[in-house]
# Entry
Amino acid sequence: MADYDSIVIGAGISGLICANYLAKYGRKVLLLEQSYHAGGNMSGFKRKGFYFDGGDQSFESLGLVFPLLEDLGVYDKQEWLKVRYRMVSKDFDFFIDSFDEVESSLIESFPQEARGIRQIFAEVRTVSRFLSQNYDPRSFPLVHDFSPGKLLGNAKWLPKLRNWLTYSYREKVCSVIQDPGLRNWFTRIGYYKMPYLFFSGFWHIWAHDYWYPVGGMQAFLDRLVDTFKAAGGTVKFRTSVESVLIKDGKARGVETGTGEQFTSSAVVYAGDYKRFVGGIVPESCFKPKFVRTVRSSRLTEALVSVYLGVDYTPEELEAQLKGGHHVFYFPNYEAIFPDQDSPRDIHKNMWTVINFFGIDNAKLTAPEGKSGIVLQTYSSHSWENYWHNTHESLPRTAAYKRLKKEVGYQLVETAKAILPDLDQRIEYFDCGSPLSLIRFSRNFAGASGGWCYHDKVSPVYRNKKLNMLRTPVESLYTCGHYALWPGGVISAALSGRLAANLAAGKKLLTPLGS
Ligand SMILES: Cc1cc2nc3c(=O)[nH]c(=O)nc-3n(C[C@H](O)[C@H](O)[C@H](O)COP(=O)(O)OP(=O)(O)OC[C@H]3O[C@@H](n4cnc5c(N)ncnc54)[C@H](O)[C@@H]3O)c2cc1C
# Structure
């Protein structure tokens, strides 16, 4: 007799959804998490009376996340804020509330580019129509409706999708802009060489489908832990899994860092994939070509985050940010992706986003009359010789701490374009590097959203499978932002349910509610 029916390794959003579904299906489930709390890339923390979201600041539903949360009974227990994006540079300052607004604001700033801007947004609107038809935030048509009518209705998009899934098509669409700076901005904004579908898709979700759980991401994730426990599940925090126990080609359980063993009939791994292949599971279980592909595949960018407790009242901050929840400031149109060769002052020249989720949220997450904000931009784990830390484990070197402070204040300087006296209002300061991301989520190199989105470089693209839920080991499954194309919260959440279906012996696409 095994100790459990299923063991889930990792309590990020994917592991939480997976564990919840397995418990809902009546399985005896153990959820193991190396950190002191749940959430991985979405987790948050409290310091000096301020709450901060550590990594991810908000997310899209795309007809996937909310229906899953509804099905688990968590959606209605949470207040959701529809977040507003604001983009600012020396030339423009606009909200992404509608494409009309964005288009007219950009045309006002770049009148000579009016034709090109209209062309770009005409195509963005087409993608937006496609996404609205198939990925309404609250309904889940892709799983509910496999009727011939629905499938035929979608067939018309296939020729377009072939183009939309490439970066080269994005370059082509954006080449209608003559101004080199603006063309560069349109071509590169987002993740590294993001295909056209994501470029347009981002404009769609920025306008219509980005959400924040009021009270903080951590409280929302803790709710998922509570639901799991209420359904009979067991969670162990501060428990790192070092290996999956495999006998006769079948997963039989796990062994933790302290040598403790738990047996089970199925195991779902919901953590970093590079550490999975040849780490948690011996390399010999995989085909050599697959191992090489996984090792060489590029990941999504890591970020640097600055956590600030400030003595602006929530009302004051709301007024200064004009009601924007993610306010991006672009000091230039370079859209840089830092790497090991980037100069020492690279973060000085980067865009910076100020994250602040409104008065109601601030009243729940900061001392009275104060506010917490998070500044972020892209960074790189390999930059400045791994941030002057030769290893990932604690304690950190003094040089690392100095560098983190220096970089953090560079972001503060950039944010002063929006909040001119920000440096005078700081009561609490901390900075999280890609190494911090690794620490709280174990994502290799601090990857934020899984594999790189470029159409040529990630294993899921190369294998043309679009998912890695199954593994060569019987009864061993994976979920998370690496396991299902394209990555991010939607893939992580959906893959959690799909892996639960497989581990429970159900059909992969079992409709919701059954
Ligand atoms: C700054 C930032 C901004 C982002 N913005 C967005 C956004 O706007 N939209 C969006 O869709 N996505 C965004 N993302 C990405 C999104 O947060 C992630 O894709 C998603 O949270 C991944 O969930 P996951 O469950 O797959 O993995 P993770 O969150 O990485 O969770 C994995 C968990 O497994 C645990 N674990 C790993 N190995 C072990 C082990 N051996 N033993 C025990 N536990 C283990 C880790 O500690 C972690 O808790 C962002 C991420 C960051 C960092």
